[in-house]
Amino acid sequence: MKKITKVLYISQEIFPYLPESELSNMGRYLPQAVQDRGRETRTFMPKFGAVNERRNQLHEVIRLSGMNLIIDDTDHPLIIKVASIQSARMQVYFIDNDDYFHRKNTIADENGEEYEDNDERTIFFVRGVMETVKKLRWTPDIIHCQGWMTALAPLYIKKAYNDDPFFKHSKVVYSIFNDDFKKPFRNLFAERLLLEGIEKKHVVQVKDKMIDFVALSKLAIDYSDAVIQSSPVVNQNVLDYIASEKVNFLPFQSDEDYADAYVQFYDSL
Asked: Residues with Cβ < 8 Å from 100, sequence gap 6 or more?
């Protein structure tokens, strides 16, 4: 079994930048555990407005910023920030943009109403990560996506970036959490996904149907090399789909065992 050496983490939430949760704790402690086992890691998350820049000492990385990403014929500047978790010897890169990430909250407003443009925010975040990793000139063996806001990464890596030398040989792992969103994405989502290398036939899971958590998860699973159940209880429809597609699957692991299990799972790919 070949040992993987470089793991890219694309995480929706990371503690301490956002409050503790199953998802944010995994985003925080899994990369550290993998580093402690001798592997090199890079970690990305969205720079939600809820992230306190001053307290967490975020600063912009000028050499990585400055690109524009076009979504639905509109230019959106890509801003990259970075901070360090000193106790873990771990850097976290943040994908930022004034249009998408300067609200006070994460995916919903103070009344719990999910943002209508979460679909575009997801596209911007994932594409921003891909472009930044290229600028870092860093070639990951494993790309581990955590949280539904990372669900487009498998599609982009396998179709839009499949010939790129930085991603050509990367294996993609998608984690399923108990983090279902409630408001379906808008009807134009499938069209907004299209990019060089991504055709309409690649996005049938989200074309002309309700784009809910299950549909988005299926799209992620279709283009992933492996899937991990990272919550003890997750959406049963998603689990049924994993079983029906005979996906390379790691079931839920306890807090004591998950780090070693995940690293062994990476190596097996």
From this structure: 46, 76, 117, 120, 121, 124, 125
pLDDT in tens, 162-175: 888 889 899 999 99
Q: Report the candidate in 2, 74, 11, 78 with the shortest Cα–Cα distance to residue 41.
A: 11
- Answer yes or no: is 104 within a domain: yes
Instruction: Give domain status of residue 1, yes or no.
Output: no
3-state helix, strand and coil shares in percent for the chain, rounded to the nearest 5: 35, 25, 40
User: What is the maximum alpha-carbon separation in the chain?
Assistant: 50
In a domain? residue 49: yes
| Whole-prediction pTM | 0.96
Q: Name the domain count of the chain.
A: 1
CATH of the domain at 237: 3.40.50.2000
At 1 the pLDDT is 67
| Higher pLDDT among residues 22 and 66, named by residue | 22
Q: Check pLDDT > 70 for residue 21.
A: yes
Tokens of 191: 């069209």
Asked if the structure places residue 227 within a domain, the reply is yes
Containing structural domain, residue 138: 6-268
Distance CA 82, CA 170 (A): 24
Q: How far is CA 252 from CA 88, 143, 159, 240, 259, in A?
A: 25, 19, 29, 15, 12
